[in-house]
Amino acid sequence: MRTKATFLKSAFFWLTLFFVLVAAPLVLALVGHQEESRGFWIEFGVGLGFVGLAMMGLQFLLTARYSKIGFTFRAGQFVWVTLGNTPFKLQQHPFTISSSAEKKKIIRFTIKELGDFTSEISTMEPGTTAFVEGPYGNFTLSESTATHNIFITGGIGITPAMSILNTLRDRRDRRKITLIFGTPNRELTPFFEELKVLSAELNLEVVHVLEESDGDWDGETGFITEEILKKYTPEDFTSCEYFICGPPLMMNAVEPVISGWGVPVHKIHSERFNIV
Q1: For residue 134, which phi and psi values (nearest 5 degrees)?
Q2: What is the pLDDT of residues 81-137, one digit of tens each?
Q3: What pTM did the predictor assign?
Q4: What are the angstrom distances between the C-alpha of 105 and each of 1, 2, 72, 99, 101?
């Protein structure tokens, strides 16, 4: 965890670098020797314009590096993460935040081991420096007039939905929500117990769809099909707002179904998890 003193030290470093590389050369160009073929006011105007552009960069620098020490995000957004002692690495990796946007001092990522980088994370020691760039994305719950919000997720695509659900819980928001969640089996279902708790705290119905199940499972099995979607969606399809997130195969199967019901485009929110 980077302390406030660390942020301030970093801010002064970037301010110094800015003045040395940008502001100082521009000021010298403004007051330096003038070519006789060009008048002072022409040089002054050009130089002042560049200084103005430089100050725009300085304003961004002050906001990002100095004033904006805290971090805020909207539930459902993602960030780019770089591990190590410098943010200037060629490798950045996108991860969706799964924690509540109301928890200002906590950022939780839920990461599935799919490649070298995600496998490396599990070996990291507590206290390892992580640089976070963002947040990005529009997979967020709007203040719409929809009477019912339907989340259709697959695998680790549940993470933005978890951020939204946790945020609604912390805000004591009782809007109607149905979560249809497809996973390979019970053991590979993330947040199984946490979703039970959220169901009791929210106006939330959770529908697990397991590709493989044992004899003790009495819920939905197989894949998320149109039949399953209709079973848990109100007859007036267009009264709902839909949030779809998961692997490409699931997205390719679900998106045409929702569109085919005549749901307006602005009521369908999609985010594909195909970047590792």
Answers
A1: 145, -160
A2: 888 777 666 677 888 999 999 998 888 988 887 776 777 777 888 888 888 888 999
A3: 0.73
A4: 11, 12, 9, 11, 10
Residue 116 resides in a domain: yes
> To the nearest 10°, the Cα dihedral for 148, 154, 158, 164?
-20
Question: In the chain, how long is the greatest CA-to-CA distance?
Answer: 91
CB within 8 Å of 160: residues ≥ 6 apart: 75, 76, 77, 78, 96, 97, 98, 137, 139, 243, 245, 271
Same domain? 95 vs 122: yes
d(CA 157, CA 152) in angstroms, rounded, equals: 9
Please name the residues in contact with 185: beta carbons below 8 A apart, sequence gap of 6 or more. 210, 211, 212, 213
pLDDT value, residue 257: 98
3-class secondary structure, 159: helix
In terms of Cβ atoms closer than 10 Å to its own Cβ (0-12, 13-18, 19+), residue 201 is middle
Tally of domains in the chain = 3
Name the region of 262 (left: φ>0; alpha: ψ -120 to 50; beta: rest): left
E strand or H helix that includes residue 54:
helix 40-61
Q: Is residue 164 within 8 Å of residue 190, measured between CB atoms?
A: no
Locate tokens 């769809």: which residue?
209
Q: Which domain holds residue 26?
A: 4-67
Whether 93 is in a domain gets the answer yes
* pLDDT mean for each 10 residues of the chain (276 residues): 46 61 59 54 50 47 45 91 74 88 88 74 81 89 81 95 96 95 93 96 97 89 96 94 94 96 95 63
Is residue 45 located within the same domain as residue 9? yes
Q: Are residues 141 and 59 in contact, defined by beta-carbon separation less than 8 angstroms? A: no
Quote the CA–CA distance of 202 and 164 in Å, as a whole number. 12
Is the distance from CB of 165 to CB of 202 less than 8 angstroms?
A: yes
